[in-house]
Amino acid sequence: KEKAGELINHSLQKLTNITKGFSDFVDLHFLPKKNNEELSFQETLQSTQAILENEIEQSKAQVNINFKETHIHFRKSMMGSIFYNLLSNAIKFRSDERDLVLHVRTYTKDGNTVLEIEDNGIGIDLEKYGHHLFVPFKRLNLNRPGAGIGLSLVKSIMARQQGTIEMQSQPNQGSKVVVVFKN
Q1: Single pTM value for the model
Q2: Among 106, 107, 118, 120, which residue's Cα sits nearest to residue 177?
């Protein structure tokens, strides 16, 4: 009974993740564009941390913050989705061999605002799997929870806003996601 309960809870969590992914894609592609508003990176991060509070606590994640750029004009729900997907990925793909350390920073480069989220997780071999990174519902690690939609959604958001996302990563070294918001 206990094992069946665990399997049911795991299946419900997967279904919830997939449903949220579909909902985010519908919002992004089919609902009318809402106006951008001035957002605080700090407040967006804090909201995301509140949503992921249990996961952050369980992973014992240390979050280091360095916001040289403090505000941006962007759609609030999209910015929340960017932070949520990138932080939850960092937590999901943490290493079992060391405590999770996250670096969240913003700065200006070539007149654009840059958000970086770097972790010391399990990393990924980009030469082998890089072409699958932004493919919706493509999961590269089946041992970790998720629906395989987070990076794809962030890429879609950034493409719609004429921004970019790239990942730098090495196996067992961690990953750095670089999101560039065109100003």
Answers
A1: 0.77
A2: 118
DSSP string over 130-177: GGGTTSTT--S-TTS---S-HHHHHHHHHHHTT-EEEEEEETTTEEEE
Query: Looking at this protein, which amino acid is placed at residue 67?
Result: F
Question: Which neighbouring-strand residues pair with 99?
Answer: none
Distance CA 16, CA 77 (A): 18
Q: What is the DSSP string of 95-117?
A: -SSS--EEEEEEEEETTEEEEEE
pLDDT in tens, 48-68: 999 888 889 988 999 999 999
Task: Give a three-class secondary structure readout of 145-158.
Answer: CCCCCHHHHHHHHH
**Which whole number is the average pLDDT over 132-160?**
67
